[in-house]
Amino acid sequence: MARKNANSSTPRPTTPEPSSVRPTTPNTEAAPKSAPAPAPSAPSSSSIGNLKANSSPIDVANAIWVKYIKETPQRTKLIDVFMVFLVAVGAVQFLYCVLAGNYPFNAFLAGFSATVGQFVLTASLRIQTNPANKTEFSSVSPERAFADFVFGSLILHFFCVNFIN
Amino acid sequence: MTRLRLRSLFVALVSLVSLSQSISLTGPRTLLILEDDTKGQFLTLISDLEARGFKTDILSAKSESLSLFKHEERVYDNIIVFPTKLKGLGPNLQSSSFLKHAANGGNILVLLPSSPEGTIPTSISELATQVDVFLPPKGFSAVSHFDLADPIEPEHSTLVLDLPKFPSDTKNYFNTGENPSAKLLFQGPGLAIGGSPLVQPILTAPRFAYSYDTKEASANADDENVFAAGKQLVLVAGVQTRHNARITFVGGADMLADKSFTKIAKTNEMSGNRAFAKDVTAWTFKETGVLRVDMIEHWGQEFGPSVINGDIYRVKHDVTYSIALSEYSYDHFHPFTVPETDSLQLEFTMLDPYYRIPLLSSSSSPLTARKNSTIYTTTFKTPDQHGQFTFIVNYKRPFLSNVHEKKAVTVRHFAHNEWTRSWGISGSWPWIAGIWVVVVGWVGFVAVWLWSKPVVEGKSGKKKQ
């Protein structure tokens, strides 16, 4: 994967690589010990700007956020917004179940699993349409992935509406 | 004035006619097993019975024409066994014949001899044992040294008793005489009864009375010579078999004899024996204490009162059950009222009672109004359990004929289209809203996605080129 990544010129030059010895920027936050390791990783750090090896967690988070804003395609951002929305709706429903009881249990199941199922479908859409994963899903075009997503979502909605009776 | 007089005459005539028509529910044919020498003692009793419409047939136990059955049918409806000097009553009056008579619905009144010298025929003591009544052997006599009927009587063997009293939840059919404070005279050995629920004491001895062996201990009675004492010494006991035939034992025949229908020396008042004799014979021969179920109606909330006594009901739905009861009293049925401290109950049973609830009397049933019966009604919700249920009214009380009414019905579960829809349950609204929020959000997402797509592609396409 790393090799492929290196060959192809993707919009995102840096991808978190678990196999890579050199720490990429997101990793620095989690592993300050590995930071002192040889840091001449010019290609990875160049695009982010200047993040010191022992910078504060807030700075690291800011850097991640800035990088995310800067380098994530708009479609992926849109997906992320939708997923956050689904998590919020699901959390509200679960909270209601905890507080008010699960009396029509099928209603709870239908409502909650609608958000969960939609979240899963959206996550797979995100994986399949992320330009960074293009090599992984060479046979699946974004259009095809979106069509699958729409088809799956319609089936999910149909089931949930039926299940709630 | 003349009109009034005419009317009272008419009323008297009507009451006379009804009096002569008054009749036992079992039937009027009455056999009196009575020897000629004792006949003279019971003239009033016999004439009172005849006045109430009983057709008496006086036969000696030795009579060859005496048979309780003909072509396997009861010849008599009621039997009175008077005390006799005979040791056996002969082949036609075995205890099995008496039991067969009772098993066929006939009633029996047994009068035991009052004097200690009197003998009890074998078949009578056998019959008593079989219905859980125990008779003392020959020579016993009940005495009370503290409440003397007649101060000059040396043996103190005549007891003076109050009329029978029962707990408030039991109907009293044995104090219907005109004078409720009248005293009863009793002379005889008494009885003891076993624990069978079919046997009920009608009259028990006063606290200080006891029945002892007069031959063994004429001077003083000790433990071995006492048969029973106090409330355990029963003077009159009534047995009602499971199908409501009645067998009554009177522990001393003199109680119903002419010589007791007199003034009591102590109080100088008329004894209550004659009215008591009427009450005892009336109860034994089913002129009183007989219940009749006139109507049973049950209907469910599903179809309403338009479908009566339907076979199928639904879980968790209201069901109304009504039963109309009337009670026989000498010559007519009248509405039966349950004693205030008692309760008529309905059971809704599948193996176990799921409900046992009181049936309350309603002045007017929603369905039918009835003149001669009381309608007891209750409404309840069928349990959340489907299966074969049974409505049971099981009313078995002392001195009342048994009411045991059963009706099995099906209780079905909800059909699939009878459940409340989700929007009918307010608790599910947040989750319904959740689904539609997801759907609407998804539609919005798809719309924005389609709108934003070309931009991204264009960019990447440009870059590639």
Description:
- The complex is a heterodimer of chains A (165) and B (465).
- Chain A contains 7 helices and no strands.
- Chain A has 165 residues and is an all-alpha fold.
- Chain A is flat.
- The N and C termini of chain A lie far apart (47 Å).
- With 465 residues, chain B is α+β, with helices and mostly antiparallel strands.
- Chain B has 2 domains: 17-286, 3-Layer(aba) Sandwich (Rossmann fold), CATH 3.40.50; 290-412, Macroglobulin (MG2) domain (Immunoglobulin-like, Sandwich).
- In chain B, the strands form 6 sheets. In chain B, strands 17, 18, 19, 20, 21, 22, 23, 24 and 25 form a 9-stranded mixed sheet that branches. A 7-stranded mixed sheet of chain B has the order 2-1-5-6-16-15-12, with helices on both faces.
- In chain B, a hairpin with a 7-residue loop joins strand 24 and strand 25.
- In chain B, helix 3 crosses helix 6 (273-284) and helix 4 packs across helix 5 (122-130).
- The model of chain B is unreliable at 13-20 and 456-465 (pLDDT under 50).
- The A-B interface holds A 11, 73-75, 78, 82, 85-86, 89-90, 92-93, 96, 100-101, 103-104, 106-108, 110-112, 114-115, 118, 122, 131, 146, 150, 153, 157, 160-161, 164-165 and B 419, 421-422, 425, 427-428, 430-435, 437-439, 441-442, 445-446, 448-449, 452-453, 455-456, 460, 463.
Backbone structural class of chain B = alpha+beta
Helix % of chain B is 10-25%
Overall mean confidence score, pLDDT of chain B: 86
* Overall tally of structural domains of chain B: 2
Provide the residue-averaged pLDDT of chain A: 77
Number of strands of chain B: 25
Distance from N terminus to C terminus of chain B (CA atoms, Å) equals 134 Å
Backbone shape of chain B = elongated
Strand content of chain B: 25-35%
CATH structural fold name of the largest domain in chain B: Rossmann fold
Coarse shape of chain A: flat
What percentage of the residues of chain A does DSSP assign to strands (E)? under 5%
The percent range for helix content of chain A is 55-70%
Largest interface: A-B, 36 and 27 residues
Number of strands of chain A: 0
> Helical stretch count of chain B?
7
Domain unit count of chain A: 2
Tell me about the biggest sheet of chain A?
none
Order of helices and strands of chain A: HHHHHHH
GO molecular function, one term (chain B): transferase activity
InterPro entries (chain B): DDOST_48_kDa_subunit (IPR005013), OST48_MD (IPR055459), OST48_N (IPR055457)
Transmembrane segments (chain B): 429-452
Subunit structure (chain B): Component of the oligosaccharyltransferase (OST) complex.
